[in-house]
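Query structure, 378 tokens:
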């Protein structure tokens, strides 16, 4: 058994031509190409629609797209399965998703985690390797790509329905992999809720839970006989020069469902196997974070600190204050004190308490989401 799992695998303008030309040397180098092509089966996250026609939906964040002929790069390394359960697969609307599904089908590449409606999106994928049946379930947190009743898109994680789906799939396979597209971008640890969610997935039959979406290598947890990976970084996604985008892990699964890791480094517009010394550094940091999350209170305390650092970004977004050129100049000259002063004026204890209630209370949150979705649609 030789199964590989990689995260975001995205053609970008910097390497479209390499994908079209099946130039594995430029994209992956000889050593990594050999690793990919010698695998019995490989699974990746397709974090972009494959379409030749741009029809961007209304959303926040970028609307990704890659030409359909870039699928040749995936064919060149024998990708077996793509998860489409992510926050970008509906970036070009229903036609973009249909184009993606058709393109993958024509290339002989299977997919899981998205479809014409919730029913199709929820459908798992089962394949056989060395006489063992491997089940794959893919789901995503709620952003702008989610399938709904009568609406196409990605399979939404639902704490009731998804757990039922995972438990039912357990009975159909020897090993079960759950690909969960969620967690905070660029944060290397699980939040308390993400850990609780992944542990529940493991408790209901998953042998391996892989969180994809964070664009960075996180940490792992061995829990109740299962393995949880909280972030493996991108596989190939040439969109940012942030430090955390420069390294990633391929997950390898061998006989007896033994789980290992293959460290990778970004190289220009491609990706390569990490050199031995760099690989050792990557794995050492990964292991250290895994030890940290075992400490009592670490996850909660670390996340509370991170949340405190991020709060002003959210408050600023809610405020409606425009970041004009003049604002940016004043804010920079003031050492960002101007921004903090504005937010302090706008948000007292009363307003923050009100916002917390609307976001935290299930009834308020459900009503607010329904109202905002209706307003944007109609």
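Result returned for the query:
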């Amino acid at each position: 058994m030789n199964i590989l799992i990689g995260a975001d695998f995205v053609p970008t303008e910097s390497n479209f031509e390499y994908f079209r030309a099946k130039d594995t040397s430029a994209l992956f180098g000889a050593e990594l190409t050999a690793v990919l092509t010698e695998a019995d089966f490989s699974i990746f996250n397709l974090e972009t629609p494959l379409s030749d026609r741009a029809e961007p939906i209304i959303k926040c964040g970028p609307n990704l797209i890659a030409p359909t002929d870039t699928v040749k790069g995936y064919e060149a390394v024998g990708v077996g399965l793509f998860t489409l359960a992510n926050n970008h697969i509906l970036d070009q609307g229903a036609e973009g998703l249909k184009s993606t599904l058709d393109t993958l089908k024509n290339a002989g590449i299977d997919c899981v985690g998205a479809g014409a409606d919730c029913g199709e999106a929820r459908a798992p994928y089962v394949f056989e390797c060395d006489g063992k049946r491997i089940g794959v379930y893919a789901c995503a947190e709620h952003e702008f790509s989610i399938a709904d009743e009568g609406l196409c898109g990605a399979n939404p994680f639902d704490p009731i329905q998804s757990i039922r789906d995972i438990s039912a799939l357990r009975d159909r396979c020897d090993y079960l992999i759950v690909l969960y597209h969620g967690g905070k971008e660029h944060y290397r640890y699980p939040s308390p809720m993400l850990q609780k969610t992944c542990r529940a997935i493991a408790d209901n039959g998953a042998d391996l839970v892989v969180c994809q979406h964070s664009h960075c290598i996180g940490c792992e947890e061995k829990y109740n006989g299962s393995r949880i990976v909280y972030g493996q970084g991108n596989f190939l996604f040439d969109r940012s020069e942030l430090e955390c985008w420069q390294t990633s892990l391929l997950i390898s699964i061998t006989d007896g469902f033994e789980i290992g890791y293959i460290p990778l480094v970004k190289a220009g517009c491609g990706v390569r196997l990490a050199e031995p010394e760099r690989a050792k550094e990557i794995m050492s940091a990964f292991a250290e974070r895994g030890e940290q999350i075992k400490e009592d209170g670490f996850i909660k305390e670390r996340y509370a600190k991170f949340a405190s650092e991020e709060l002003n970004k959210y408050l600023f977004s809610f405020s409606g204050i425009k970041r004009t050129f003049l604002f940016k100049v004043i804010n920079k000259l003031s050492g960002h004190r101007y921004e903090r002063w504005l937010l302090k004026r706008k948000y007292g204890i009363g307003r923050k308490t009100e916002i917390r209630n609307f976001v935290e209370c299930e009834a308020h949150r459900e009503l607010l989401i329904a109202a905002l979705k209706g307003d944007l649609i109609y």
